[in-house]
Amino acid sequence: MKKLIAVIAVSTLASCASYDGRGLVPGKSTEQEVVALMGKPAERFARPGGESILFFPRGPAGFHSYAVTIGPDGIMRGIDQRLTVENVAKLTAGTMTKQDVHEYLGPPFLVSYFPRLKREIWEYQLLEVDFKWKLWLQFSDDGVLREVLRMRHPAMDWPGGAKD
């Protein structure tokens, strides 16, 4: 029984460590080490100069999407959490496209289409310290970002009203 508990504890710790890439070293860790630690990336974008960005979204219930930059030599250049309030503030309606946003924030957790509005809606979640947000991005049929809506996450509201 003690061995079983030890195995479960070790696997739990290992899975937690792989969530955000803790232990990976920019300039040293290889793409194979990134994948071994963080799992298979949800998406890969080719960048100029032979670089790639691998996305590891931790949703749909999660509030993080990690982007790992891999150089043309297969070595990790950096890792960053893309779903931040600071990054959302850089989104510019009317100029950014679906492709721009996709490569910046990573894949959305949910995609919907509102035919009467003729808008595609991408949903993300954000965590700001210990405050949760829902993020909805609206794209027109031409693929241009038209609206950025950030609202208080429903999980922040207590049933029956605000908690005093």
How far apart are the termini?
A: 45 Å
Helix content: 10-25%
CATH class of the largest domain equals Alpha Beta
> In what range is the share of β-strand residues?
25-35%
Strand order of the largest sheet: 1-2-3-4
Biggest sheet, in brief? Answer: 4 strands, antiparallel
Report on the structure:
A hairpin with a 4-residue loop joins strand 7 and strand 8 (145-152). The chain is built from four helices and eight strands, in the order ααββββααββββ. It has helices at 2-19, 31-38, 85-89, 98-105, and strands at 43-46, 52-57, 65-70, 76-81, 110-114, 119-128, 131-140, 145-152. The protein is an alpha+beta fold and 164 residues long. Residues 4-17 have low confidence and may be disordered.
Strand-helix topology:
Blueprint: H1 2-19, H2 31-38, E1 43-46, E2 52-57, E3 65-70, E4 76-81, H3 85-89, H4 98-105, E5 110-114, E6 119-128, E7 131-140, E8 145-152
Antiparallel strand pairs: 1-2, 2-3, 3-4, 5-6, 6-7, 7-8
Features:
alpha+beta; four-stranded antiparallel sheet; globular
Summary of the model, kept short:
The chain folds into 2 domains: 59 residues, no CATH class; 72 residues, Beta-lactamase Inhibitory Protein, Chain:B, domain 1 (2-Layer Sandwich).
